[in-house]
TrEMBL record:
<dbReference type="GO" id="GO:0035529">
    <property type="term" value="F:NADH pyrophosphatase activity"/>
</dbReference>
<dbReference type="GO" id="GO:0051287">
    <property type="term" value="F:NAD binding"/>
</dbReference>
<dbReference type="InterPro" id="IPR003293">
    <property type="entry name" value="Nudix_hydrolase6-like"/>
</dbReference>
<keyword id="KW-0479">Metal-binding</keyword>
<feature type="domain" description="Nudix hydrolase">
    <location>
        <begin position="148"/>
        <end position="278"/>
    </location>
</feature>
<dbReference type="GO" id="GO:0047631">
    <property type="term" value="F:ADP-ribose diphosphatase activity"/>
</dbReference>
<dbReference type="InterPro" id="IPR040618">
    <property type="entry name" value="Pre-Nudix"/>
</dbReference>
<protein>
    <recommendedName>
        <fullName>Nudix hydrolase domain-containing protein</fullName>
    </recommendedName>
</protein>
<comment type="similarity">
    <text>Belongs to the Nudix hydrolase family.</text>
</comment>
<dbReference type="InterPro" id="IPR000086">
    <property type="entry name" value="NUDIX_hydrolase_dom"/>
</dbReference>
<dbReference type="GO" id="GO:0046872">
    <property type="term" value="F:metal ion binding"/>
</dbReference>
<keyword id="KW-0378">Hydrolase</keyword>
<dbReference type="Pfam" id="PF00293">
    <property type="entry name" value="NUDIX"/>
</dbReference>
<dbReference type="Pfam" id="PF18290">
    <property type="entry name" value="Nudix_hydro"/>
</dbReference>
<dbReference type="InterPro" id="IPR015797">
    <property type="entry name" value="NUDIX_hydrolase-like_dom_sf"/>
</dbReference>
<dbReference type="InterPro" id="IPR020084">
    <property type="entry name" value="NUDIX_hydrolase_CS"/>
</dbReference>
Length: 322
């Protein structure tokens, strides 16, 4: 979700001097005629000519003084769009608007060059659309930037035999061939950290687990396409033991004795890997406290959030804080 583009339920209207309601000219006529000679006679004693070029694009006002163009009511004809967009920018600028958000669905991708030529910049893209922005006031843009991070999870699963659930990836860098590692993956849209960790373990190994705690997280920059990366290591409790390998991503999976897992040369030689495992081992010995998840509501946005924090309860103490 992009901060600063929450729409209000109001459409922008045509300028006072246009006189013509939107329904006076159908979108069918618009597409047939293009942007060349879009002149229409207005009925009445004071008849005048009105050019469809002077209609502004349907839009919503956002709560930050900006405009969100209605992507479902865009003209399909690039020439019509070019004229309407140019006039809309002038209109919104005269009204003191700030940022413009223009979402172009893939089926109208031929409108992208038109918007870019008008001065719009790429903001982000998904499979079905590209989002472009335009900052109207003088000076640097104050619109929020695109997402800066990707979020990954790793599941540290250990059974009552002191065995760790580990995998070997089918596709990996040459230096990691043969390494047994914990199941890892990326959080998908609208997914919680703890449910993502449980899902990744299930997908890669077939083992069902329950979330216990976040024991640590790593932050690193310039990873994928210059984006930063947050990686959460989650301790999980197994509720099943049978392994079914996902042969699309995973070469092999097994329950590995903890000592054998820790003593792998690649683990011992890598400071970060070794520290992560050391923390997990400390947590097993109750000499370290992780972060458990709590659902809390906020009056700021009216939503329930997952807040991760440490609680040491003397009645249910499972760790000793330092």
């Amino acid at each position: 979700m992009i901060s600063g583009i929450s729409p209000k339920a109001s459409h922008s209207s045509t300028p006072n001097y246009s006189y013509v309601p939107k329904q006076a000219v159908s979108s069918v006529d618009e597409e047939k005629l293009g942007a060349g000679n879009l002149l229409y006679q207005i009925n009445g004693t004071n008849s005048s000519l009105f050019s469809r070029k002077l209609r502004i694009l349907d839009s919503f006002d956002d709560e930050y003084g900006g405009v969100i163009v209605d992507s479902e009511r865009l003209p399909a004809n690039p020439n019509v769009f070019a004229s309407m967009l140019s006039f809309s920018i002038s209109h919104w600028k005269s009204k003191g608007k700030k940022g413009i958000w223009l979402k172009l669905p893939v089926e109208k991708s031929d409108l992208v060059p038109v918007a870019v030529k008008e001065g719009f910049e790429y903001h982000h893209a998904e499979r079905g659309y590209v989002m472009l922005t335009y900052w109207l006031p003088e000076g640097p843009s104050m619109l929020p930037a695109n997402a800066s991070h990707q979020v990954g999870v790793g599941g540290f699963v250990i059974n009552d035999k002191n065995e760790v659930l580990v995998v070997q990836e089918k596709y990996c860098a040459p230096q990691f061939v043969g390494l047994w590692k914990i199941p890892t993956g990326f959080i998908v849209e609208s997914e919680e950290i703890f449910t993502g960790a449980v899902r990744e373990v299930k997908e890669e190994t077939g083992v069902d687990t329950e979330f216990v705690e976040v024991v640590a997280f790593r932050h690193v920059h310039n990873v994928a396409f210059e984006k930063s990366d947050l990686f959460f290591i989650c301790m999980l409790k197994p509720v099943s033991t049978h392994i079914m390998v996902d042969d699309h991503e995973i070469q092999a999976a097994k329950w590995m004795p903890l000592v054998e897992f820790v003593e792998q040369p690649l683990i011992q030689q890598d400071c970060m890997f070794k520290k992560v495992i050391d923390i997990c081992v400390e947590r097993l010995g109750k000499r370290y406290c992780g972060l458990s998840v709590h659902q809390v509501a906020s009056a700021f946005d009216g939503k329930t959030s997952s807040l991760y924090y440490n609680v040491i309860d003397s009645q249910h103490n499972n760790c000793i804080g330092n």
